[in-house]
Design goal:
heterodimer, A: about 325 residues, alpha/beta, D-Maltodextrin-Binding Protein, domain 2, 2 domains, six-stranded mixed sheet, three-stranded parallel sheet, 12 helices, about 45% helix, B: about 500 residues, mainly alpha, two-stranded antiparallel ribbon, 21 helices, about 75% helix, about 0% strand
């Protein structure tokens, strides 16, 4: 009887201990899984080809954000149709926190406005952090007769439609910037699209066009080595890597909105949980202050510009509103 | 300059450097062999890895990938009639017939030695005459590019084999396909049916995979029961014994290298066009043009020498001006900038040690892909003896995966299958496929540059035509176009009269 009792107690106590251990371990793992997001690598959709400006920037960010995420950030290139394919795939991605994207404005709003049947809305995205802001710059060849922007404007007024300006295109942010400038300055220039800022600069170096409107990052080397002269940068403040170049307002006295400036940042699909969003926001805010990252970006000439989710959302909304005002001029 | 070259030798002799080059070359050979993996993709994916390396080591590795993958596209082309990279399309024309005759080792040896020699000559050009050549490349404007594309299209006759008419049909079909996608000047969408994958036009690598692998797969499946195997001439299994034959074609090697370098220097033209133009030149100047398309050694050598000579050529404007001529060098530019280096004249002075050790590393890469390629080829030649019932599904699987992997897009797989079906129909009616590739590559360029030329001259067609003869470079290309056409037509008439007699 006693032995039985003892045995009975033994069995009971064993069961109790096992139950306690099991429930404790369940509680622990549950606690861990909440605390431990991300449990696996996060993938980031890039809407442009491997090796391009956007992709390279994304890969640098991915490398340096890893310690802050605790897991790898894997780049997934979904290029094509001027970003439409990648942006669409981000908008429709799962909201489990393991899928985010690198988005480009104003491209993302222009694609939507210029084409029919684009299957995403701007409200499909949850902005996390803006990483960089790359303004458009107006350049001429070093031996060009246009010494200042005023020279070019004056000539354009005398010869409407005769001055050839090369740039990334067609329907690019660079073209949008030029159209807005033409509208504000009351001039008529002939925009000639090339397959990117690079080829546009090449044709300017060869004297095939009179001026060009490339992105500042792609023109900086040529400006600093004296082959090209920058007449103005389409940005409210002066550009970090081109300290001597006047802003467009300083050069013309006219307020020209910098709608063409290319912003690149991180966004998640709408519907991602608040904890995941907070975690990602902190990780990307931290990497923007990371010494190694800032040094690497500086070495590559990447113009960093951090915006938190609220600022970035406001920026995207404003970019969309500005683009909307002028987009009809491009159709 | 010579002291700079000496300065560059120092870092070259470190163990890290040699490991990086060997790794780049081996990886490059693999990338090139597999259709769907391109040099551009390989380099882009490796750039982040080169972050942590010293710049000269990282660049040497990227250079190794570029050179080796441009060469090794020929291996799958020669053995399976499927080009591993667009650069190898002209090589198939004679490389695959050689395989069918049991001479695959010979064809691979020709391709390997030709690529090596073309590559080496182009690096010499890069080392010694880069700056003046780079300045020259800037003088090409839209009218010149337009005429260059037209000149490229005139070589269709050479790529057509027996029936020039069929070649023209294929060429025109290629040109027609090249009009799909957005208009280069206005962005207006043509024949895209709201499919975003078509907005940028029919993707070249995807269509190459379909065009060459699908007909091959169907062909293999229809003959799967027949026991005949492609024979492999084992007495010729030592590739080195073909080296003297390669060297004996001095004129061909030098001409092809020069064509390759010239094509490389002009931004935006590319390796495949270099191969086509050089093949055409070899055929026209050959005493036995009738051998071309049936396994001519001169044809394989011309195409392969030229496409690797393009590599050194493309680096000339890249390093001296920061002007990338093709997608690979555009990615390489990113790889250079990531190390804080800025292309231009000062790259050769302030960073002379880095840039010269990079250039010198290209010599090593060019030499190194010879043993790596020949070693791989030794085992790859066995591929053609795998039973068709195994090889065909394997190729099919690779075609689907390869076309999906490029952009991670299922639409691209459908495009590949559609072009593959077109390729099968063409194959069935013995319509040559190379002219279609030429049309697809050059059609976009011809159309874009023509409309850009007209925009630059404000729509004045008369002024444009005058420009074509008053701009010196454009006049030279125009004369070349006319000569090319006249000679082609004359040969055709001669051939017809032979038939009639």
């Amino acid at each position: 009887m006693i032995r039985n009792n003892v045995r009975g107690f033994n069995v009971f106590s064993r069961m109790l201990v096992m139950a306690a251990v099991t429930s404790l371990s369940i509680a622990l793992t549950a606690g861990q899984s909440l605390a431990k997001y991300p449990e696996k690598p996060i993938s980031m959709i890039v809407a442009y080809s491997p090796g391009g400006g956007t992709d390279t920037a994304a890969r640098v960010v991915a490398k340096y954000v890893q310690p802050y995420l605790g897991k790898r950030l894997i780049i997934q290139n979904k290029p094509g149709a001027g970003g439409q394919i990648g942006f669409t795939s981000l908008a429709q991605a799962k909201t489990d926190g393991y899928r985010i994207g690198f988005i480009n404005s104003p491209s993302i709003v222009m694609v939507k406005m210029l084409r029919d049947n684009v299957p995403y809305e701007m409200s499909d995205f949850e902005p996390i952090a803006n990483i960089q802001l790359d303004p458009v710059v107006l350049v001429v060849k070093a031996d060009s007769p246009y010494k200042t922007l005023a020279d070019l404007v004056e000539d354009a007024k005398k010869n409407p439609g005769k001055i050839n300006v090369g740039g990334d295109g067609p329907q690019s942010n660079n073209q949008l910037q030029l159209i807005v400038a033409e509208d504000k300055l009351g001039v008529d220039l002939n925009f000639v699209p090339y397959n990117g800022s690079g080829p546009a600069i090449t044709s300017l170096l060869g004297g095939q066009v009179d001026a060009a409107v490339p992105s500042a990052t792609s023109a900086t080397t040529h400006i600093n080595n004296g082959r090209l002269r920058a007449l103005g940068v389409f940005s409210p403040e002066s550009y970090k890597y081109l300290p001597g170049v006047p802003t467009i307002k300083e050069a013309t006295g006219v307020d020209i909105p910098s709608v063409g400036a290319a912003s690149r940042g991180i966004a998640a699909p709408k519907g991602i949980s608040a904890e995941h969003k907070a975690f990602l926001t902190k990780a990307f805010a931290d990497v923007m202050k990371d010494k190694g990252f800032v040094e690497q970006a500086d070495k590559m000439g990447l113009p960093l510009k951090y915006m938190n989710p609220a600022e970035y959302s406001a920026y995207l909304e404003q970019a969309a509103a500005e683009a909307k005002k002028y987009i009809h001029l491009m159709k | 300059m010579f002291e700079n070259i000496l300065l560059g030798i120092g870092p070259l002799l470190s163990v890290n450097m040699l490991i990086a080059i060997a790794g780049g070359v081996t990886g490059g050979v693999l990338i090139g062999v597999l259709p769907g993996l391109t040099s551009t993709m390989g380099i882009a994916l490796l750039i982040p890895i080169t972050f942590s390396m010293p710049p000269e080591v990282g660049l040497a590795m990227l250079g190794g990938i570029y050179l080796a993958s441009t060469y090794s596209g020929a291996i799958s082309g020669i053995l399976l009639n499927i080009p591993g990279t667009p650069a190898a399309v002209a090589t198939l024309l004679d490389g695959y017939p050689m395989t069918q005759k049991g001479q695959s080792t010979k064809a691979l040896a020709l391709a390997t030695f030709g690529s090596c020699i073309g590559g080496l000559i182009s690096v010499v050009a890069l080392l010694f005459i880069a700056p003046p050549l780079a300045e020259f490349s800037l003088r090409f404007g839209s009218p010149e590019y337009f005429l260059l594309a037209v000149f490229g299209i005139t070589v269709i006759a050479s790529l057509s084999g027996e029936d020039v008419e069929k070649g023209l049909i294929a060429g025109i079909f290629g040109l027609l396909l090249s009009t799909v996608g957005n208009h280069p000047l206005t962005g207006f969408m043509r024949f895209t049916y709201d499919i975003p994958a078509l907005f940028d036009g029919i993707p070249l690598v995807v269509s190459l995979i379909g065009l060459y692998s699908i007909p091959e797969v169907i062909d293999m499946l229809t003959r799967r029961k027949s026991g005949e195997k492609i024979k492999l001439n084992l007495d010729e299994s030592n590739p080195l014994r073909f080296f003297p034959e390669v060297i004996s074609q001095k004129v061909n090697l030098i001409r092809s290298s020069l064509i390759g370098i010239a094509v490389g220097i002009i931004p935006g033209v590319g390796c495949s066009v270099g191969g086509f133009l050089s093949y055409d030149a070899a055929k026209r100047s050959s005493k036995k043009p009738e051998e071309f398309g049936k396994g001519s050694t001169a044809g394989v050598l011309a195409s392969e020498t030229a496409n690797n000579a393009v590599t050194g050529g493309t680096l000339i404007p890249l390093l001296t001006l920061g002007v990338p001529g093709n997608p690979v060098t555009a990615v390489l530019l990113g790889g250079i900038m990531i190390h804080g280096l800025r292309p231009g004249a000062e790259l050769f002075t302030t960073n002379a040690d880095i840039v010269y050790s990079f250039i010198l590393s290209l010599f090593i890469s060019n030499l190194l892909f010879v043993p790596v390629g020949l070693f791989m080829a030794k085992y790859c030649v066995r591929l053609i003896q795998i039973p068709r019932s195994i090889l065909a599904p394997a190729i099919m699987a690779m075609a689907v995966i390869g076309s999906y992997a490029i952009r991670g897009s299922m639409e691209d797989v459908w495009i590949m299958l559609f072009i593959g079906f077109c390729g099968f129909v063409m194959h069935f009616f013995a319509v040559p496929r190379a002219p279609m590739v030429l049309g697809l590559v050059l059609g976009t360029m011809a159309e874009g540059e023509l409309s850009r030329s007209l925009s630059l001259i404000h729509g004045d067609v008369g002024a444009f035509l005058i420009q074509l003869v008053t701009r010196p470079i454009s006049l030279v290309i125009l004369i070349l176009c006319i000569l090319s056409l006249v000679q082609g037509i004359r040969q055709q008439i001669k051939k017809n009269s032979v038939y009639e007699n």
